[in-house]
């Protein structure tokens, strides 16, 4: 797997990279004892290098902005590749995008993101194999029965996971299968197959790629509560029964100051099962228009999430759901809310960027 244990490694490399970028030599500001932490806002010292130094990775989702032409497109791609070492296709690997007709697969969109990631030494998180949303009409309006749904699920997973074998280091195998009270959510796969669709999906993914990390991903499971308790029980049962699973993704779509105080403890209890935790879709939405005060609170929220990941050993990465307010799902999904990401609509760094930087630097 191209994803190694980074915690504790890479300090020398990151420091050397910064010194080289500054044109500095042995006396380029280093002290004999401590790590070299350049001041915030140095264009030359990217978040991804600081993250490596801190023992985690930092990533972003993206696909629309990635395809923009003109200066916005080049700003998008250059910040993406400079600052982040994990790329999650925001939509391009979803069922409706990859599998628009029963025997038609369309891989070109996702493949272009994978190629970009490889060119820029980024790893790719696959998102997502099984979800109740973004399903094509040929699935949802086909009048299918249980056996057909089972076949569709197996075929889709086998084809997609095989296609990206060796190119994707982790898959969100099943996304958002639970309601907030911890019960199983109604949707195409559950309604047709029943609760076994979840483990079927994990087994099918493992059969197609023995090495890729397999994740269950959901929202409102970042703190300890009925929904995360239900995930905990499910994955513990999977481990006992040998259903293949490697980790849990906390989406982390937060409202301002909406972080659960139990985030760290929750990461720790999943890690104690031997599972990895990924913060997979972090954003912190604020009422718009935002203010200096709300953006300062947002920055503190970003800091706390990144720090919680660094401080809890099972947590391997933090991925933000996009990085610029120019391209975020928030305004259209949560009317009256926006400005949820670390760069503003003009690709300028916000206080949230600086607080991520500081959290990664251990400040
Ligand atoms: C969102 C994308 O950001 C949007 O562009 C798309 O229109 C809908 O899906 N949880 C998830 C993500 O797991 O896949 C969702 O992404 C956001 C919520």
Description of the structure:
This protein is an alpha/beta fold. Helix content is 42%, strand content 15%. It is built from 14 helices and ten strands. It has helices spanning 11-22, 47-54, 70-83, 95-98, 108-119, 137-140, 146-163, 188-193, 196-208, 226-241, 263-272, 292-311, 330-333, 351-360, and strands at 57-61, 86-88, 123-130, 170-175, 213-218, 247-250, 253-255, 276-287, 315-320, 337-338. It has an eight-stranded parallel barrel, surrounded by six helices. Strand 8 (276-287), helix 12 (292-311) and strand 9 form a beta-alpha-beta unit. Helix 12 packs parallel to helix 14 (351-360). It is globular. The protein starts with 10 loop residues before the first helix and ends with a helix. Bound molecules: (3S,4R)-3-hydroxy-2-oxopiperidin-4-yl beta-D-xylopyranoside. (3S,4R)-3-hydroxy-2-oxopiperidin-4-yl beta-D-xylopyranoside is lined by residues 90-91, 175, 251, 281, 329.
């Amino acid at each position: 797997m191209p994803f190694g244990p980074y915690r504790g490694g890479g300090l020398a490399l990151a420091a050397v990279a910064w010194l080289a970028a500054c044109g500095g030599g042995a006396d380029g500001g280093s002290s004999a004892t401590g790590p070299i932490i350049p001041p915030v806002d140095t264009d030359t010292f990217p978040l991804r290098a600081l993250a490596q130094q801190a023992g985690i990775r930092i990533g972003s989702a993206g696909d629309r902005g990635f395809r923009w032409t003109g200066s916005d497109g080049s700003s998008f791609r250059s910040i993406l590749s400079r600052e982040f070492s994990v790329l999650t296709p925001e939509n391009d690997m979803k069922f409706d995008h990859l599998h628009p007709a029963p025997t038609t697969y369309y891989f070109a969109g996702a493949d272009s993101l994978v190629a970009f990631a490889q060119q820029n030494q980024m790893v790719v998180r696959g998102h997502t194999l099984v979800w109740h949303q973004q399903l094509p009409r040929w699935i949802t309006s086909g009048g299918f029965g249980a056996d057909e749904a089972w076949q569709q699920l197996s075929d889709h997973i086998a084809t997609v996971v095989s296609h990206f074998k060796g190119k994707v280091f982790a898959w969100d195998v099943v996304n958002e299968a639970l309601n907030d009270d911890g019960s199983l959510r109604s949707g195409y796969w559950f309604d047709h197959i029943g609760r076994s669709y979840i483990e079927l999906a994990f087994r099918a993914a493992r059969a197609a790629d023995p090495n890729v990390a397999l994740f269950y991903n959901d929202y409102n499971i970042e703190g300890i509560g009925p929904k995360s308790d239900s995930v905990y029980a499910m994955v513990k049962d999977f481990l006992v029964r040998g259903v293949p699973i490697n980790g849990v993704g906390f989406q982390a779509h937060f409202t301002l100051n909406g972080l659960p105080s139990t985030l760290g403890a929750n990461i720790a209890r999943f890690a104690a099962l031997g599972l990895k935790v990924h913060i997979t879709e972090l954003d912190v939405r604020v009422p718009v228009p935002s203010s200096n005060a709300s953006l300062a609170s947002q920055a503190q929220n970003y800091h706390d999430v990144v720090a919680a990941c660094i401080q809890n050993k099972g947590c391997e990465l933090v991925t933000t759901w996009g990085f610029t307010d120019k391209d975020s799902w928030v305004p259209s999904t949560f009317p009256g809310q926006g400005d949820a990401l670390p760069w503003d609509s003009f690709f300028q760094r916000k206080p949230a960027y600086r607080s991520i930087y500081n959290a990664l630097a251990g400040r």
